[in-house]
């Protein structure tokens, strides 16, 4: 039995999510199992479960798939509740400081209450906070006082040059860890356009209430700024080959529910100013073909609808490792004289980083993890190179 293509799976999932299960064909058990695996990987399993329940499809879904979907929903609700409480704790602790640093919440933690309402529908992995560079030491110290452990840098020079955030973990029992990513700028890299976008985003934020509590130092991007950030995060930061379906659905919901608050001319102007027209156009094409997103006429004039283009882009989604794509992008942005040393430091990061990341037992065995790191890097790089070769073949 031939397995359905990835593009077919993504299209089926998007149709299932948007239609809330209505007019869905009768899938055989093996198709439901394949859909669940893809939905889990793409971060949309809770949305699939909502559609199954909404359309009363429970009797058509294999019991093991239905149970697996329920487990994901319960786990998502539990993790999101922990992250929400932790965000409130961090915000309250920061507010008690003599000069509270401004915290801008990015991505899922800001979108969950704004777009989804139900905490069980949108899986979250961490808390993303944008702070001004001068406030970074203060926020880092605050998190450490709250029990967080900072992830060691893989290299003292390059990590601060190409990375745009510090990562902090709070371990709560065996297997439970909460993560806070503190961003010094919204997009990684040292290019001038990234800095320009960061400065523009800081000027386009608005106050944000954490449940019943409103702290004056807690903000989120305005709908216009968040739309641009979501577009550029997935297409510039990660690239099409690493884009996930849930990220595109975030954009779809933002346009659908907050489109009246988006300044569309400003969004187009910023995309053109930063040279990211293609990134924006690709997201428009993808969301149109997957979710029939109601983009306004201004966007239609800037990036005309092209269903064929959207289908080609869907076929390329998720075809490469996100780590390999990020590595390639960071390497390409460096000056030539630093590229060789950058790759060397990626292959041979600091011992402190190796001990933290791989946690060998006993700890002195950490050098043995270098061959595993090299093998993983070679495998992902080969896969990325193959995908680039395939998609650059001349069209007949």
Characterize the structure shown.
This protein has 396 residues and is α/β, with parallel strands linked by helices. It folds into three domains: 6-61, no CATH class; 91-316, no CATH class; 322-391, no CATH class. It is built from 18 helices and seven strands. The chain has helices at residues 6-18, 29-42, 45-54, 63-95, 108-116, 136-145, 158-162, 192-202, 223-238, 245-258, 264-274, 277-291, 297-302, 307-316, 322-333, 336-347, 351-358, 369-391; strands spanning 103-106, 127-130, 149-150, 165-171, 177-183, 205-210, 213-221. The chain has a seven-stranded mixed beta sheet. Helix 1 (6-18) crosses helix 2, helix 2 (29-42) runs parallel beside helix 4 (63-95) and helix 12 (277-291) crosses helix 14 (307-316). The protein is globular. The two termini are 30 Å apart. 34% of the residues are buried. The mean pLDDT is 87.
């Amino acid at each position: 039995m031939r397995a359905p293509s990835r593009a077919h799976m993504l299209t089926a999932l998007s149709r299932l999510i948007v239609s809330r299960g209505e007019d869905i064909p009768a899938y055989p058990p093996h198709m439901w199992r394949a859909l669940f695996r893809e939905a889990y990987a793409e971060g949309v399993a809770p949305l699939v479960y909502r559609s199954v329940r909404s359309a009363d499809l429970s009797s058509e879904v294999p019991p093991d798939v239905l149970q697996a979907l329920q487990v994901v929903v319960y786990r998502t609700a539990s993790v999101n509740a922990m992250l929400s409480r932790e965000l409130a704790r961090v915000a309250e602790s920061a507010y008690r400081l003599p000069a509270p640093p401004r915290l801008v919440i990015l991505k899922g933690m800001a979108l969950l209450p704004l777009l989804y309402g139900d905490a069980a529908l949108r899986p979250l992995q961490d808390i993303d906070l944008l702070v001004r560079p001068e406030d970074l030491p203060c926020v880092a110290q605050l998190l450490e006082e709250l029990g967080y452990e900072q992830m060691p840098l893989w290299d003292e020079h390059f990590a601060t040059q190409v990375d745009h955030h510090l990562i902090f973990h709070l371990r709560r029992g065996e297997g439970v860890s909460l993560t806070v990513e503190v961003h010094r700028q919204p997009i990684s890299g040292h290019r001038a356009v990234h800095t320009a976008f960061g400065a523009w985003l800081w000027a386009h934020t608005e106050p944000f209430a954490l449940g019943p509590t409103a702290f004056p130092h807690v903000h989120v991007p305005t709908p216009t700024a968040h739309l641009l950030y979501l577009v550029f995060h997935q297409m510039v930061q990660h690239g099409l080959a690493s884009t996930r379906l849930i990220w595109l659905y975030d954009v779809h919901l933002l346009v659908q529910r907050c489109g009246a608050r988006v300044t569309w001319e400003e969004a187009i102007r910023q995309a053109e100013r930063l040279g990211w027209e293609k990134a924006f156009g690709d997201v428009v094409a993808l969301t149109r073909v997957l979710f029939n997103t109601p983009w306004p006429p201004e966007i239609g004039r800037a990036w005309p609808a092209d269903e064929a283009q959207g289908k080609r882009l869907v076929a390329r989604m998720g075809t490469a490792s996100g780590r390999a794509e990020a590595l390639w992008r960071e390497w390409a942005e460096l000056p030539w004289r630093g590229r060789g040393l950058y790759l060397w430091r990626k292959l041979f990061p600091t011992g402190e980083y190796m001990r933290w990341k791989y946690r060998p037992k006993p700890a002195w065995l950490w050098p043995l993890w270098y061959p595993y790191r090299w093998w993983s890097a070679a495998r992902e790089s080969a896969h990325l190179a193959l995908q680039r070769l395939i998609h650059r073949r001349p069209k007949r």
